[in-house]
Amino acid sequence: MASLLYRIGRSAYLHKWRFIAVWLLLILGVGGAAAAFYKQPADTFTIPGIESVETQDKIKEKFPNQSANQADSPSGKLVLRAPDGKKLTDPDVDAQVKALVGKLRDLSYLKEKDSIAPPPMAAEGLKQKLAPIKQAQGIPEQQIKADLAALSPLSQDQTTGTVQVTFDAPSNTQISDADRNDFSSVVEQNKGDLQVAWSGPAFQSTQPPNGSSELIGIAVAAIVLIITFGSFVAAGLPLLTAVVGVGIGIAGVFAATSLSDAIGSMTPTLASMIGLAVGIDYALFILSRFRSELIAHVGGEDLTPKELAPKLKAIPLRERAHLAGLAVGKAGSAVVFAGTTVLIALAALSIVNIPFLTAMALAAAATVFIAVLVAITLLPAIVGLIGTKVFTGRAPVVKAPDPENETPTMGLKWVRLVRKHPRKFVIATVLLMGLLAIPAASLRLAMPNDGSKEKGTPNRTAYEMVDESFGPGRNAPMVALVEYDDLGQDQRAQAVQAAVQTLQGVDGVQNAQVTATNGDQTKPGDVGTAAQILVTPKYGATDEKASETLQSLRDKSADFHNRTGASYAITGVSPTYEDISDRLSGVLLPYIGIVIVLAFLLLMLVFRSIWVPLLAALGFALSVAATFGVTVALWQQGFAGIISDPQPIISFLPIMLIGLVFGLAMDYQVFLVTRMREGWAHGKPAGNAVANGFKHGARVVTAAALIMISVFAAFMLNGEQFIMVMGFALATAVFFDAFIIRMTFIPAVMFLLGERAWKIPGWLNKILPTVDVEGESLQHKQADGSESAEPTGGPKHAL
Q1: Residues 6+ apart with CB under 8 A from 266
Q2: Average pLDDT for residues 311-330, to the nearest whole number?
Q3: How far, in Å, CA of 482 to CA of 498, rounded?
Q4: Phi-psi domain of 683 (left: phi exceeds 0; alpha: psi -120 through 50; beta: other)
Q5: How confident is the model at residue 799 (pLDDT cuts 50, 70, 90)?
Q6: C or N: which end of the chain has fewer Cβ atoms within 10 Å?
Q7: Higher pLDDT, 720 or 46
Q8: Within 10 Å of residue 76's Cβ, how many Cβ atoms?
């Protein structure tokens, strides 16, 4: 691999315009495809094979005139609340409501105008329509009142009401932003003294990333890079190449929206977050190695930047290309391997068979793949274009000594301290990670809904108003599909009533009533072959008791079937989200197992050791456990009031986090330990090899970790709950893994192991293929690409 990458890096430096031209064409092509094929992402979180989704499909079959997927509906509700101390039925308030409703009826992009009515009027019309029907069915008067209250658009205290609105569009994703914006403007201009808000599928507007989080991350990364290189030009190169890679990746995601409905609004943001972080880091690793190769080539270890500049300028083109090839061959090998681990970890998420999760994972994986290609091809081409001025534009004050030659570095001082007390550091890190992981035992997963939106948004406000005035169950309705194809006509009606009684009798159910049958409406008593029963729970969608209620409803289905011969199944947006959470919880531990085993096998292949992969996997597990613990404590439990709006963790965050942290953890493991093994393979004692390798890798890994932390942390300003928590969790995971695990725990244990750290059974060593990640095959390369008898160039490795 190293030899191939050497040729790529050398060729890119020499034939810079060819490589740059290819990337420019790719940018134009992907950008054009994005502009031509982009469509609004659809946040439809569904999983094939779960009960709620299968039941929705049956509803579509049994009730073809109804939407099978409520989350796709172009409808929503406007929530109105009277001023303090007043009711919607008060004459002056009622006049304002009617004026607002009149304006809404005039909007051309709204259909089903009959449903747009003042809540008091709509509530009265509902009562006049349904009460006689229910009375004729022999339903007790008390139950009729409860049924009407569960459906009424007017709260019992008459202070709050809802107005159903439906946009003239096939689905919510095809509603134009112009229509949504105009709707909000009309409401705001005509609301009078009313408090108003809106929610529902029609108002799940999604916008492409605005780039503010990325810009903040880039700004912090720029500071770290300037300190690392001491050069404005060199600091700008990783930023430039990372932006190119992310731009291509995001454009590709936008273009792919026309091919898949599984791509949600969070997909491009996640891809941007991951692509930007790894893109900067991968370019940093290669550029840092290139600087080391240049300095070593001219013997400039002890020279000042001013003294070094003319020597670098005097290096012939062929020799500079050779050094660029060495940098790509050595650091690039680690970059390719590290990027491959991220790709595998993300692509493996597709095994859980969750379309929207697979789309997010594959989009992030594709962006990482592009970041690797950019680092090993476009970066050396741009360096070739700049030539000898790549490390010019010196930043004032910043010294940025070369970690390959500075003695002793801060990293060397730290690792020497660890070497003196390895047992203490091992015990301390394990205890710290274990204590931080404790809150993870209380992890509660839930899917995003209007209640998880940012406080103050119309969706969140509407959700809270409905919760307060109508009860939390109004925001989390369920639908039971009752099927009785094989029963006689008399038995069918009895089965429907028995289903209502069964569902109503479940603890946690506020109300259950029939809302539709597929029988002939012109024939009294004809209930067809299926009925829908609306189930209103007592609890909100994210309440743990809501999931218990759902399970109780399903547990009763077997007994109901035995008694009546009919069957029922539960669906709805909330049950679908609960089923998704259960599926994700169920695959979490197996996925962790797969990732840890994968980490072990890959690292055993690279380092030809048993202990190094075991330590890497153990360190990864400690990092993830501690990250979960801190995330749960702050974002779910609201520890110390740091997070003002604690909520359950979004269901697909843990499995995404595991995949990403695995890849990033292996990045740091590879970049640090390859230098350790390189020293050991060249005859250094195990302890010295660990210390020397740590010295060479610590500074650049520290810079890379700080860049990743800043990029991820910047996304906490996004406003989207999932992205905010994901940004925090990834930043925390990188901090734990880079500074506590890779820079403390790993070297401490390796000092304890000594020579045993690099041992591997002979039979296993024979069957494992050779992977040259350290670039040992490049030791004999000459400037013209030929082989020499003696090693040439390269940084010094002595302590």
Answers
A1: 43, 360, 720, 722, 723
A2: 83
A3: 10
A4: left
A5: very low
A6: C
A7: 720
A8: 27
- What number of other Cβ atoms are within 10 A of residue 87's Cβ? 17
> Exposure of 777 by Cβ count < 10 A (0-12 exposed, 13-18 middle, 19+ buried)?
middle
* Alpha-helix runs per DSSP H in 137-176: 141-151
Q: Specify the pairing of strand 110-111 against strand 509-517.
A: unpaired
Q: What are phi and psi of 122, to 5 degrees?
A: -65, -35
pLDDT band at 739; cut points 50, 70, 90: very high
pLDDT at 290 over 90: no
Sheet containing strand 530-537, strands side by side: 509-517, 530-537, 478-483, 567-571
CA-to-CA dists, residue 590 to 349, 584, 593, 594, angstroms: 11, 10, 5, 6
Query: Which tokens go with 206?
Result: 């999604």
Quick one: pLDDT at residue 796? 39
Place of tokens 């010094």: 796
- Cβ pair 391, 234 in contact under 8 A: yes
What are 438's two structure tokens? 């404790």
| Predicted local distance difference test score (pLDDT) of residue 607 | 79
405: tokens are 């030659």
Q: Which residues pair with 173 in a beta bridge?
A: none
Per-residue pLDDT tens over the stretch 501-510: 999 999 999 9
Distance of CA 367 to the CA centre of its chain: 13
Return the amino acid letter for 580.
Answer: I
> 784 φ, ψ to 5°?
-90, 5
H/E stretch holding 469: helix 458-470
- The tally of CA atoms less than 13 A away on the side-chain side of residue 472 is 14
3-state secondary structure of 514: strand
**380 three-class SS:** helix
d(CA 103, CA 72): 26
pLDDT of residue 49: 78
Burial class (CB in 10 A: 0-12, 13-18, 19+), 766: exposed
Q: Distance between CA 710 and CA 716 in Å, rounded?
A: 10
Question: b/e map of 597-607 (b: 16 or more CB within 10 Å)?
Answer: ebbbebbbebb
Give CA–CA dist 480/533, Å, rounded.
5
Only one residue has tokens 């030659």, namely: 405
Q: Is the pLDDT of residue 786 over 60?
A: no
Confidence of residue 378 (pLDDT cuts 50, 70, 90): very high
Whether residue 67 has pLDDT greater than 60: no
Q: Which tokens belong to 45?
A: 């979180």
Residue type, 654: P
Q: How many helices (H) and strands (E) does the chain have?
A: 27, 10
Q: pLDDT per residue over 482-526, tens digit each?
A: 999 989 888 999 999 999 999 999 999 999 999 999 988 777 778
Beta bridge partners of 160: 81
- The answer to whether the beta carbons of residues 714 and 213 sit under 8 Å apart is yes
Contacts by residues 404-410 (CB-CB < 8 Å, ≥ 24 positions apart):
404/292, 404/295, 404/296, 404/696, 404/795, 404/796, 405/292, 405/295, 405/296, 405/301, 405/302, 405/795, 405/796, 407/799, 408/695, 409/695, 409/698, 409/699, 410/698, 410/699
| Cα–Cα dist 290/303, whole Å | 17
CA–CA separation, 170 vs 177, rounded Å?
Answer: 15
What digits encode the pLDDT tens for the residues 422-446? 999 999 999 999 999 999 999 888 8
Greater pLDDT, 797 or 423: 423
Q: Give 530-580 pLDDT, tens digit per residue.
A: 999 999 999 988 888 888 999 999 999 999 999 999 999 999 888 988 888
Query: What domains are defined for the chain?
Result: 1-41+216-258+267-397 (1.20.1640.10), 51-205+455-576 (no CATH), 406-454+580-769+787-799 (1.20.1640.10)
